[in-house]
Amino acid sequence: ACGALFTGFIATFNSLPITGTYIRSFFFSKEILFPTGTYFNYDNYLDGHRFAQATAQRGNSLVGKSNPTGMVLVTALPIVLGAYFYFAKRTFTKVLFGVAALLIFTGSVFTYSRAAYVSLALILMAYVYLERRVFANSLLPMIIIGGIGVAAIGVGSNYFKFEFIVEKFDLKNEQYQETNQARVLSFIRPWQLVLEDPTYIVRGAGRTD
Q1: Cβ neighbours, 10 Å, residue 188
Q2: DSSP calls for 103-142
Q3: Which residues are registered as beta bridge partners of 64?
Q4: Contact of 73 with 102, CB cutoff 8 Å
Q5: Would you report the helix, strand and coil content of the chain in percent, each value rounded to 5?
Q6: Across-strand partners of 61?
Q7: Over the stretch 16-55, which tens digit does the pLDDT of each residue have?
Q8: By CB count within 10 A, which of 23, 57, 113, 199 is most buried?
Q9: What pLDDT, in 10s, does the model give residues 86-124?
Q10: Number of C-alpha atoms within 13 angstroms, CB side, residue 18?
Q11: What is the tens place of the pLDDT at every residue in 61-73?
């Protein structure tokens, strides 16, 4: 929960222009904390204009760039919500898991990652059908409060980058057809592999260059 909370915190406040420069200067300026193996280049990042630019950006974190950050967060969300509703008994743990769930949700949204958005939609659908109490008591209030906040500030304001995700989801845009198809396959292909060979659940795809 603490790791997910911290990752959600970094992703959320790194994305917002009013706090992003402070997050990047405090965390990403330290090479020992800089993500490795996720197409980040430390020297290029420090020299890049985005480091000190107070504009809305995709929610990178110490996990890596926005896409892996988003997938880590959406994977953690059901776990943290389950802990909040079924295992947290004390006030401290309730608050910890509650704040973690909130920051995970906002961090996932502010990654502006297509895969994260689709995963969030699937998670919400699953909760609607399987755990309506969790959806009604936790996810729905977060969606409503977040929607009101975004609407009050302005969807198209400089605080957000929603036009980026709208453009990426444009299926008619030839520039993103290949990447959109890759994301669709990432949700479909694993099930096909499991049907072809059930041991795939255990051994996975392996690692390739």
Answers
A1: 10
A2: HHHHHHHHTT-HHHHHHHHHHHHHHHHH-HHHIIIIIHHH
A3: 61
A4: no
A5: 75, 0, 25
A6: 64
A7: 888 888 887 787 777 677 665 545 555 555 554 455 566 7
A8: 113
A9: 887 888 888 888 889 889 999 998 888 888 888 888 888
A10: 4
A11: 888 788 888 889 9
Task: Determine the residue type at 169.
Answer: F
- Please state, in angstroms and rounded to a whole number, the distance separating the CA atoms of residues 100 and 76: 10
User: Torsions phi, psi of 61, nearest 5?
Assistant: -145, -175
Q: Token pair for residue 19?
A: 């706090």
Joined tokens for residue 53? 């630019």
In the chain, beta strands by DSSP E: none
What pTM value is reported for the model? 0.74
**What is the length of the chain?**
209
CA distance 130 to 190: 23
